[in-house]
Amino acid sequence: MSEAASRLPFSAKSRRTVEQPISYLIQTALHNPHLINLAAGLVDPRTLPVEQCEQITQRLFGDDARARAALQYDTTLGLRTLRKELLSHLARVEQVPEGELGYSADDILVTTGSQQVLYLVGDVLLDPGDIVIAANPSYFVYTGTLTSLGATVVAAPMDEDGMDADAVEQVLLRLQREGRLSRVKLIYCTSYFDNPTGLTLSLPRRRKLLELARRFSTHHRIMIHEDAAYRELRYDGQPLPSIKSFDRENRHVIISNTFSKPFAPGIKLGYSAMPADLLDAVVQQKGNHDFGSANVCQYIALNALQSGMYQSHVQTLCQSYRAKRDAILQSLSRHMPKHPELSWTKPHGGLYVWLTLPADIDTRRSSRMFQRCVSAGVLYVPGDYCFVADEHGELPVNHLRLSFGQVAPEQIDAGIQRLAEVVAQEINEHGAPKMGQKVTSARA
Amino acid sequence: MSEAASRLPFSAKSRRTVEQPISYLIQTALHNPHLINLAAGLVDPRTLPVEQCEQITQRLFGDDARARAALQYDTTLGLRTLRKELLSHLARVEQVPEGELGYSADDILVTTGSQQVLYLVGDVLLDPGDIVIAANPSYFVYTGTLTSLGATVVAAPMDEDGMDADAVEQVLLRLQREGRLSRVKLIYCTSYFDNPTGLTLSLPRRRKLLELARRFSTHHRIMIHEDAAYRELRYDGQPLPSIKSFDRENRHVIISNTFSKPFAPGIKLGYSAMPADLLDAVVQQKGNHDFGSANVCQYIALNALQSGMYQSHVQTLCQSYRAKRDAILQSLSRHMPKHPELSWTKPHGGLYVWLTLPADIDTRRSSRMFQRCVSAGVLYVPGDYCFVADEHGELPVNHLRLSFGQVAPEQIDAGIQRLAEVVAQEINEHGAPKMGQKVTSARA
C-alpha cells in the first residue's frame, strides 16, 4: 500500500480538532508525582460523597423495581423523575417559586456532564465561520471545542465584575458595521466564580448581556449559553440571580449546570434548561450521539436530591473549599513578592484563583518560569491556554491559573511558597517593570 | 421581534438531523400499555443483573480508595484497569491468546454506549457527501446518524449469510468507475446476529470484506466499522472469528462492543478497539464531547468482569433469550399463514427476527396493517425504517422487525398470534401474490 493510500481520510472537523492543552499538564503531573498540583481542575478527593453513594446504591439496588428501571435504557432527554427534581432544585438555587422559572420538567435535558451540552448546543447552532462571543480569559476546553466546530471566538475582556458587557456591546456594534452580525450565534458566559479567574458576573451586567442578545437579534435569535457549573460552590457574598432569570419568556438563554463540581464528577451528569425549539434540536442531536446518558448515574443523582444528601453535601463542600480558598489567599499574601504589577483575584466561590504577573514574565509551558516551577515541585495552568488571540493574533502570557480544588489543604502553603520563590526569582532577573507583554504566536 | 429575528439559526448539521423514527413507536407503546411490544429494542427487564450490581456497588463504595477514584474524573480514553480487563475479555471472546489480538489496553476506548463510538468515528472521518457502504437492511439509528453527518449511505443487499460481500465489491467497482471511490470512507457491518435481521456474516464474507477494504484503499485507507453489539448473545451455532481477527496489522477495522446487550443498558458503556492513528483522532473528538464517560459505570463494569459476574451473567442471559428465541420461532410456525412469499429468519443469537411478507403487503407505520396490529394489540418495527432507498429512491415496504428482547416469555405466543391474524387478513384481502412491491417515497 502506498503512503497516500494508507493515510486515513480525516474529516474537516477532525483536522480542526487539536489536543486539549490540559493533556500535557496531566502527563506532567503523572510523571512528577512529588509535584504540588495547583493546575488540576479536579475536585477534592477528600470530600467526595462516598458514604452517601454507598447508601444510595444500597437503597437503589435493594429495590427490585427501581433497580431494574435503573439498569434499563431510559429516554434521550433523561429520566423524568430526575428532571422533575432538577426543576425544583433550580428553583431553590434561584430562590424563586418553581412556577416563576418559566420551565417544566420537559424543558430540562440531562447530559453526560455539562461539557456534552456545550458541545451539543454548538453542534446544533454553529457552522464553520460562525461567531461565538466569549470572555477573555475563558474556559479553554470550551474554546477548543468551538475551534473544532470551526467557529470563530471573538473575545471581550473581563474585569472584577466578570465579562465586560460594554465591551460585548462594542464587539457586536463592530460586527454589525462589518456586516458579520448574521454570523453571531452565541454569547458564552460562565456567570458564577468562573474558570479560570474565579470571578462572577455582576448583576447589572447580567441584565445588560440579556438586553444585548435581544437587541442584536435582528437576523436571528442570538443565544446566551450561561455556564453555571460553579454556582453552588459559593463561600461568601450574596447569591445572584442567573442571567436566565431575567429572560422570563425563555427565549435567549441556555443555562447549564453540573453534578461534577457540587457532588461527584464520577457520575458525569450535567443538566440544562433552554427554549423548547432549541431543546428539540439538541435532543435530536443527542439521539445520534448516545440516545441518553447513563441511567444508573441518573438514579444516583435522583436519590441524592430526593434524600437531601445532595443539599447537605453541598454545604459540607462549601465549608471545606472555603477553608482552602482562605488558605490559598493567605499564602499568596504571605509569600508573593510585593510588586505593583503582581495581583490575584479573590473569588467568593468556585475552585480557581487567577494570578497576574508583571507583564514581562512569561508563564507559558515553554517558559523558563514553567520549567522552574516543575523543578521546584509546583504545577499551574499557563494563562495563555485561557485566552483567545486578539485580531492581531496576540495572547497575553503573564497570567496563570491556580486551582485549590484537588490539592490537600496542608500542601497549599508549601505550593504557593514554591511558586512565589520562582516568581521572585523571575522578577529579580527581569529588573524594572515594563509595559504589558503580549506575544504574536500560538501557544508554545 | 420580527419572525425572522426570532428564528433560531440552526447549523447545516442540525437541519439534516431528523427525529429517530423509533420515537414514534415508543410513543405508541406508551399510549397503548396493553400492546404486546415486539418492537422495542430494549433488553429483558427480568434478566437485568440487579443482585450483581448490588454486590458490586457495595464492594465498590465499601472500599474508600476505590470509591474515591470512581467518583472522580478519569481520562477521556477510559479507566485503564477496565481497558486491561476488556483486552483480556476481547481475547476470550475471540478465543485467541491476548497477544494475538494485536492490541494493547491503550488501543481500547470506552464510550457512552457503542452508539457514541459510531458517532465519533463518523464525526472524525466523514464530511458531507462522503460515502458509507452498509447492508440493506441496516441498523436504522446509525443510518440516521450518517444522514445527520451529511454522509451518503450506499446500500448492499444481504441474505442468509449476512451482508453480500460480492454486492459490496460491485458497489465499490461502480463507485470507482464513477470516480467516487475517493468519497468512500467506511464500510459498516453488524457482523453477528444483526439488528434488524438477526443474521450473521459468514466466514468467507468476513475475509472478503476485509480484502475489499484493502484492495480499494487506493486513495486513502478505507475502514470497516464492525459492530459486534450482539456477539456474546449466541444461542447455538459455532462462534465465528471477527472481521478484525483477519486484520492482523490493525489497519482497517474498528470493532465495537457494548455492555448494554450482554449486561445492562443502564451503565451505558461501549468499548472499541481500532488503529492507533484513528484512535488518536477519536479520543481528541471525545475530549470535546465529554472528556470521558461516567467513571462510576466504568468501575461497575470493571468489577463485573473481575469478579466473573459478567461472564456468568452472559450465560444466564443466553439461556433465557434462547428460550424466547425458540418460543417466537415456534409461534411463527404455528400461527403464520402458509404462503410462498412469507418467511422469517431463524437467528442463532441476538434479539431480532425479520419477517418478509408477500410483496404487496405494506407494513409501514401509515399502513392499514400497522393500524390493525395496534388495534389487535401488537407492535412491530416497520421494515422500511431499516432500509436505505436505492438509486431510484425506492424502499421495500413488505418487511417487519420483531424483537424478543423485552417481551415477557408468556406474551410471545399471544403477540405472534395477533400479528398472524392481521397478516392472514391482509393476505386474504390482497388476493394472489404479485411481484415485489417497492415504493418511491420517504417513510410514510
Keywords:
Aspartate Aminotransferase, domain 1, eight-stranded mixed beta sheet, alpha/beta, homodimer, 444 residues, 42% helix, four-stranded antiparallel beta sheet
Structure description:
The structure is a homodimer of 444-residue chains. Chain A has helices at residues 3-6, 12-16, 22-31, 50-62, 64-71, 80-94, 113-125, 140-148, 165-177, 203-215, 276-289, 295-306, 309-335, 368-376, 409-430, and strands at 36-37, 108-111, 131-136, 152-159, 162-163, 184-190, 223-227, 253-258, 270-273, 343-344, 352-356, 378-379, 381-382, 394-396, 399-403, 438-440. Chain A has 444 residues and is of the alpha/beta class. Chain A has 2 domains: 10-47 and 312-440, Aspartate Aminotransferase, domain 1; 50-309, Aspartate Aminotransferase, domain 2 (3-Layer(aba) Sandwich), CATH 3.40.640.10. An 8-stranded mixed sheet of chain A has the order 2-9-8-7-6-3-4-5, sandwiched between helices. A 4-stranded antiparallel sheet of chain A has the order 10-11-15-13, covered by helices on one side. In chain A, strands 1-12 form a two-stranded parallel sheet. Chain A is globular, with a radius of gyration of 22 Å. At the A-B interface, α1, α2, α4, α5 and α7 of A face α1, α2, α4, α5 and α7 of B.
Q: Examine the secondary-structure arrangement and name the CATH architecture of the largest domain in chain A.
A: 3-Layer(aba) Sandwich
In CATH, what is the homologous superfamily of the largest domain in chain A?
A: Type I PLP-dependent aspartate aminotransferase-like (Major domain)
| Total beta strand runs of chain A | 16
Uncertain runs of chain A: none
CATH class of the largest domain in chain A: Alpha Beta
Number of helices of chain A: 15
